[in-house]
Amino acid sequence: MNAALQHETLTRSVEDYLKAIYRLSPQGRAASTSEIAQRLELSPASVSGMVKRLSEQGLLEHVPYKGVQLTADGRRAALRMLRRHRLIEAYLVAFLGYTWDTVHEEAERLEHAVSDTMVERMAAVLGNPAVDPHGDPIPTSDGDIHETAGIPLSEVPAGARVEVRQVEESQPDRLRYIASLGLRPGVRFTVVDRQPFRGPITIEVAGRTHVVGSELGQVVRCAGDEDA
Amino acid sequence: MNAALQHETLTRSVEDYLKAIYRLSPQGRAASTSEIAQRLELSPASVSGMVKRLSEQGLLEHVPYKGVQLTADGRRAALRMLRRHRLIEAYLVAFLGYTWDTVHEEAERLEHAVSDTMVERMAAVLGNPAVDPHGDPIPTSDGDIHETAGIPLSEVPAGARVEVRQVEESQPDRLRYIASLGLRPGVRFTVVDRQPFRGPITIEVAGRTHVVGSELGQVVRCAGDEDA
DNA sequence: ACTCAGATTTAGGGTAGGCTAAATCTGGGA
DNA sequence: TCCCAGATTTAGCCTACCCTAAATCTGAGT
Ligand SMILES: [Mn+2]
Ligand SMILES: [Mn+2]
Ligand SMILES: [Mn+2]
Ligand SMILES: [Mn+2]
Fold this sequence. Notes:
The structure is a homodimer. By secondary structure, chain A is of the alpha+beta class. Chain A has two domains: about 1-145, Arc Repressor Mutant, subunit A (Orthogonal Bundle), CATH 1.10.10.10; about 150-225, Roll (SH3 type barrels). Helix content of chain A is about 40%, strand content about 15%. In chain A, the strands form two sheets. Chain A has a six-stranded antiparallel beta sheet. In chain A, strand 5 (about 190-195) and strand 6 (about 200-205) form a beta hairpin. In chain A, helix 2 (about 10-25) packs across helix 5, helix 5 crosses helix 6 and helix 5 crosses helix 7. The first copy, chain A, is globular and about 55 Å long. The model of chain A is unreliable at about 1-5 (pLDDT under 50). The interface of A and B includes residues 106 and 118 of A. Bound molecules: manganese (II) ion (4 copies). One manganese (II) ion (MN) binds near residues 16 and 112 of chain B. Chain A binds a DNA duplex through helix 4.
């Protein structure tokens, strides 16, 4: 309920903190100060300070030296930002000639500036998409989200035929490389070979064979054919 | 040249100050502290402080107790913001279902968040419009502007047939009223009668007659048929 | 049970940009 | 020429966030 009041008053910093903490807390795990600091490229001391303020505002639960979790209000605000971010990305790709390697940076700023009205207008002209250009699910306007974390490419058994589900959006050059392999959400391909100890992975995409390193194995997430 | 460096580093506040000062300085007149304060809804003391900082940064020329003028750098930055603001307004009306009474507020925030790239993409899909939804001229990307200040409706002689040029964008309810009269940029109408001493003005728009007060007379600006 | 490296918090400091109240300037009228 | 109302600036304060350096906690490994 507090959230209704804060709704309009959260600063850009606060919004980015909440979003980062959400992404660092799969199924409500606690996020650590240093994880948050690393993701937001801030000093741990700064994060400590902000965490204290956000707890006092009721957006976080903080156990000193242990970590933070979002409260219901905090989670609501985080999902609202995630919806904005991902819809903006989808809109820019669909209507303003952006590619998946360039949208993230633009959305990172715009997400704080657009009105709820504008977000919903963009959703409408897009036909209420379920995922963004990186395959990440878009929360609904009332805060539901289908977290469909595919399995990392590095864990797909050799021989399997799978579909790209989602690709980590940070690092534009990495996204360009991935696109150059023909991989993007929805594309089906085959894992031909997988070497142990984080070794290279051989894949075949649209008839062409590529060998990629373990970093890509972490960053590209896949799904079998069962669902979807 | 300083501007090139600052380009990316101007804050939202600074950008709004420069824009306000530009609009308060037709043909390089000096803008006063209190005018700026009023337009930005800030205290005169706050404006004094900011004016000092902006002068030190080379964006303003300040003669204490007299007023401020934009430097070349300041003017460049102001026109860049004006281009952004007006293109965003045009884009929102054209593609996202906004009306001229709702765009200003949205643009006031977005103008600080969009990249140059996005601004130019919007301009491109719009076909590089010359004016925004309120009839205000859009500066070019290299900072040219055709200030086409029409004459206020209150100064149009009775009997004249004129065209709406531009309408003051602040105050959404006033814009809705004006729209309800059938007036918007490009619409031709006749001034039937004009009473002295800021008296009411009778106009005929598309066959319908209306009597409006002097406030509208100031806010609606017109042009004869010669140009355009 | 101790220890200490690494994580975290605290202390202290900086910038940006607001505000109110007090001091100061300026120009028009007597 | 003088005076004072109104405009402007200065003084002092506040909030939000960021930083580095110092203090403090915690837990894994002996
Ligand atoms: Mn952001
Ligand atoms: Mn994304
Ligand atoms: Mn603005
Ligand atoms: Mn406008």
